[in-house]
Design a protein that fits this description.
The chain has about 250 residues and is an all-alpha fold. It has 2 domains: about 200 residues, no CATH class; about 45 residues, no CATH class. The protein contains 11 helices and no strands. The protein starts with a helix and ends in an 8-residue tail after the last helix. The relative contact order is 0.09.
Length: about 250
């Protein structure tokens, strides 16, 4: 009981404001529930709680703002909700969820400009892992480094939870006629969503040299003479050359 009281009231940290006390109660409850329900995976909840508190105490630029972090507190719920949607709804690949990320990050919350979002998608492509990692760049635009780490953790949490919870049932689901019927319908829709994501991203391609790179890269991929990784690296190198040469770059 003393340990519980200390975790809520703080240990030699001085008086806490009511919001901090409420958050500590939430963290304590989440840790206890996760230990019972998830076992070793409770470490994900611990990381999430730590990153959440860090993001709350820092402003969007990543600087310490103390307990009354107004901008961080206002941004956090929207960021967590966006990241959760990205992780929970990315059926068929990360590009399916690009329009949702673009709407939340650019149009609704203004964390990134259209050009910055396009760069974030490119970053998600050239770094190891799925393109869903674009959400980390969105989180960085919203709340600095803590926001990026928090967004990435929240986005990947649903898939971890599904694997842990449904792994024993995967074999039965694979042979279930209803599940197969659902996948047969959702699969083509996911492909269509990927094509739609390309249309959304085209708005960030505004310079003539970008259009040329887009056309050449598309032809190279369609001809199957070059792999996706090689095309991305060459396109990135061309962008660096244009920037170093003082060429026109998209407005941020």
């Amino acid at each position: 009981l003393k340990l519980v009281r200390a975790s809520i009231t703080g240990a030699g940290e001085g008086p806490l404001d009511p919001q901090q006390t409420v958050r500590r109660v939430v963290y304590l409850t989440a840790g206890a529930a996760a230990t019972v329900a998830l076992g070793p995976a409770v470490v994900l909840v611990l990381l999430l709680a730590g990153l959440m508190e860090l993001a709350l105490r820092r402003g969007p630029g990543g600087s310490e703002t103390g307990a009354a972090a107004g901008p961080g507190l206002a941004t956090l719920p929207a960021l967590v909700w966006t990241a959760f949607k990205v992780g929970a709804l990315s059926y068929g690949g990360g590009f399916v969820i690009i329009p949702l990320m673009q709407a939340d990050a650019v149009e609704v919350n203004g964390w990134l400009s259209q050009a910055e979002f396009l760069n974030a998608v490119a970053l998600g492509q050239i770094t190891p892992g799925p393109v869903v990692q674009t959400v980390a760049a969105v989180g960085y635009g919203a709340a600095g480094i803590p926001g990026g780490a928090l967004a990435a953790l929240v986005a990947f949490a649903p898939s971890f939870a599904l694997v842990i919870g449904l792994a024993p049932r995967f074999a039965r689901l694979r042979d279930n006629p209803s599940a197969r019927a659902f996948l047969d319908g959702a699969g083509p829709a996911a492909v269509g969503a990927i094509l739609g994501a390309a249309v959304v991203l085209l708005d960030g391609v505004r310079e003539p040299w970008q259009v040329a790179v887009l056309v050449v890269a598309g032809l190279a991929l369609l001809s199957r003479r070059a792999g996706g990784v090689l095309v991305l690296l060459v396109a990135a190198l061309l962008g660096v050359v244009v920037a170093l040469a003082g060429g026109p770059l998209p407005a941020a």
